[in-house]
Design goal:
about 700 residues; alpha/beta; 7-stranded mixed β-sheet; single chain; 3-stranded mixed β-sheet; 26 helices
């Protein structure tokens, strides 16, 4: 690997002679190996004596609630004896109830943690600690809007500069973009940003081959530049962090030499559609309590969510290199949900993985519609199911294995809930249309009556719903109890109305997501790869044809369920209505929730009083010049941009004849056959333009056309 010989210089200098990258400081990453334990002797394993009883309390509570609920469900089914179908229903109920009980116990712990927590910790006006370490701010991007990307980045840079600690931070935009127009627009936006902020410590790098996607992007940066930094803070394209939060994260790492990673709790902002506003409200109201609960019993065995976290670079390089899973996609190949695995490998090596749920100043965005959310969720589903191969790896902490199982369970529970509902309806249909066998084969003094206890069944249902809904009500109680927080949510009445509306909207969308996730699991088990699509971040408007096509299967499932329930009895139809209504009206629900929704409902503190970094980012996004020309046109019209682009290209490598870029060869032929620049640009495909942009001589050839 060659070493760059030129350090970054101001933009006003000779752009053609410089690259927007610093002198390399390599830090090699060890080859990924899931079966080998890497525990350095010099790092003491984090010890927390309180963790044993905390974790024991969570597990015992889960077991007690599951046992009690399972016994009551058995009493519901055992009237007249438990049939095979009823036994299957009972087994599914135990698994699903354990999942609900585990989440409830963790959330309940979070309620008491926040109840004892001092409001106003890490207040904006609190004095910042002094720090001395060098930190790299990494922003990986893949075909994102360059103007919105640089607007957020500029807001973060300006916020950090106000802390007087900005000189300790360097900024890297690590591009994997494959769209040639976006690639050149990124370079243009980064040049403008570097001039605007006036710092020479803003660097850009584009990978022509985005192997392993984001994980490979970060890994390559570490092997080239990681040795120059103590820490790195990894952002997403939609991430936003205040300068004060960044400084406190660095101080937290400096104060704990055994800490390998500290994860923040990002709050959702900038929601516009009804779907995203519901997600924003729910995350802001319920998220802190849930995060406080898991942080309480995770301790130093926390999890990594892939962004808005600070990482000790040396620890990551020594222990978090990812292996390639054996087999074919979707289970084999590069690990999609790499963050969970990287956190587990760092913990296996003895580094502590922590979360600071009450730090604040960390933000992100969510997809604008249920369909966009489901598309992203499909990729996450595949990534989490890949973890089935990681769970048995030697040397992992048992809590890290729990993280993997929780992620896997988040998707497997969807088809299990669907199967649970279908088995329940099958039992009802059997009782309605199949003649019961009152006297089974063999000696029996009494007949077997196929029946259940309906009154007890209602109580079991109410108790299960209570476990699901009580954490939301407890979060609302915390808001009621604190005047400052209550006012931030618009008052007790508005917050309460928001919770009620959120429960209704979420209940309508939940059956649709159950179908989507069940389909995703089936597709993955059948061997279908999800790929990696660019996430949409604008409005959630969906075309009518797309609505009918995507929501067709949930609607048909609703029709089948409604017909089956009605065939048994009207009371069963009413009993199943919470699920059936959401499925039957999937199309209008999908259309309605994707539409813009502004109003006094679902108000969050960040919406009522936006923090300065968010307000600045939105101002910059609104004022950004979003106009642009195709990549080749931009480079032809702007000589400085062309010089900069050529300066960023890696030197050509010697290749075997069988590895020649076919797109480049075809593109060169089209250029040679064209008489004018316009003719060449018109006939080149996007992939051919991308290859030409990566080849200096070919690019010069097309741009020199008359």
């Amino acid at each position: 690997m060659g070493t760059l010989s030129t350090a970054p210089r101001p933009i006003a200098g000779d752009i053609a002679a410089q690259r927007l990258l610093p002198t390399e400081a390599p830090l090699p990453m060890a080859p990924g190996d899931l079966g080998k334990s890497l525990v350095p002797d010099r790092i003491p394993a984090p010890v927390a004596p309180a963790m044993a009883w905390r974790r024991g309390l969570i597990l015992l509570s889960t077991a007690a609630l599951t046992g009690a609920g399972g016994y009551e469900m058995y009493r519901v089914l055992q009237v007249g004896g438990v049939t095979v179908l009823e036994a299957m229903v009972l087994a599914l109920f135990l698994v699903l109830l354990a999942w609900v009980a585990f989440s409830f116990a963790s959330a309940l712990a979070g309620f008491f943690v926040l109840l004892a927590h001092r409001p106003g910790a890490f207040a904006p006006d609190e004095e910042l600690p002094a720090i001395a370490s060098r930190t790299a701010m990494l922003l990986p991007t893949y075909n994102e809007d360059p103007h919105r990307l640089t607007a957020r980045l500029r807001a973060i840079i300006e916020s950090l500069e106000t802390t007087s600690q900005g000189k300790l931070f360097d900024w890297y935009v690590l591009s994997d973009s494959t769209d040639p127009d976006i690639w050149v627009a990124e370079e243009k936006a980064l040049l403008a940003l570097r001039q605007a902020v006036g710092t020479p410590r803003l660097y850009y790098r584009h990978r022509a081959d985005n192997t392993a996607r984001k994980a490979g992007n970060i890994s390559e940066w570490i092997t080239r530049f990681g040795g120059a930094y103590d820490f790195m803070i990894v952002l997403d394209a939609d991430s936003l962090m205040s300068g004060q939060t960044i400084v406190r994260l660095v101080h937290a790492m400096e104060s704990n030499p055994s800490a390998g990673l500290v994860q923040t709790l990002p709050m959702v902002v900038n929601a516009r559609s009804l779907f995203s506003r519901v997600q924003q409200f729910a995350g802001r109201l319920y998220g802190p309590m849930i995060a406080a609960g898991v942080a309480w019993w995770h301790g130093s065995e926390g999890n990594y969510w892939g962004h808005n976290a600070i990482i000790r670079v040396k620890a990551f390089a020594e222990s978090a290199a990812l292996p390639q899973l054996r087999g074919r996609k979707p289970f084999g190949g590069h690990i999609l949900s790499h963050d969970f695995v990287e956190g587990a490998l760092m913990r296996r090596a003895g580094w502590g993985i922590y979360m600071l749920p009450t730090l604040g100043g960390s933000y992100e965005e969510v997809p604008p519609s249920l369909l966009d959310f489901a598309a992203r969720d499909r990729r996450w589903c595949q990534g989490n199911l890949q973890h089935l191969a990681v769970v048995p790896a030697r040397g992992l902490h048992w809590v890290s294995r729990v993280h993997f199982m929780v992620g896997i369970g988040a998707y497997l529970t969807a088809p299990l809930w669907l199967l649970f509902l279908l088995l329940g309806m099958l039992i009802s249909l059997q009782a309605r249309f199949v003649r019961p066998e009152y006297f089974p084969k063999g000696f029996s003094l009494f007949p077997t009556w196929p029946a259940q206890d309906p009154v007890l069944a209602i109580w079991v249902f109410v108790a299960t719903m209570g476990l699901l809904l009580l954490p939301k009500l407890l979060s609302l109680v915390l808001v009621w109890m604190r005047g400052s927080v209550r006012r931030q949510f618009g008052g007790a009445l508005r917050a309460s109305a928001g919770v009620l509306a959120e429960i209704v909207v979420s209940a309508l969308m939940a059956p649709v997501m159950m179908i989507f996730q069940s389909i995703a699991v089936i597709e993955i088990l059948a061997g279908r790869d999800a790929g990696w699509q660019t996430q949409r971040r604008d409005d959630g408007t969906v075309e009518r044809r797309e609505l009918y096509r995507k929501y067709g299967i949930p609607t048909l499932c609703g029709v089948a369920m409604a017909a089956s329930a009605y065939a048994v009895s009207v009371p069963l139809l009413l009993w199943m209505s919470p699920v059936i209504v959401g499925l039957l009206f999937a199309v209008p629900i999908g259309a309605l929730t994707a539409m813009p929704a502004f109003g006094r409902l679902f108000v969050t503190p960040e919406e009522r009083e936006p923090p300065s970094v968010l307000r600045r980012a939105n101002e910059l996004s609104a004022s950004a010049d979003v106009g642009g020309s195709p990549a080749l046109v931009e480079l032809r019209q702007d000589s400085a941009l062309l010089a900069f682009h050529l300066a960023q290209l890696l030197p050509p490598r010697a290749t075997r004849p069988d590895t020649v870029d076919a797109n480049l060869a075809v593109g060169r032929a089209k250029v040679d056959a064209s008489e004018t620049f316009e003719e060449a640009a018109e006939h080149l495909s996007s992939r051919e333009i991308f290859s030409i942009l990566n080849d200096g001589p070919a690019l010069s050839s097309v741009l020199q056309k008359r």
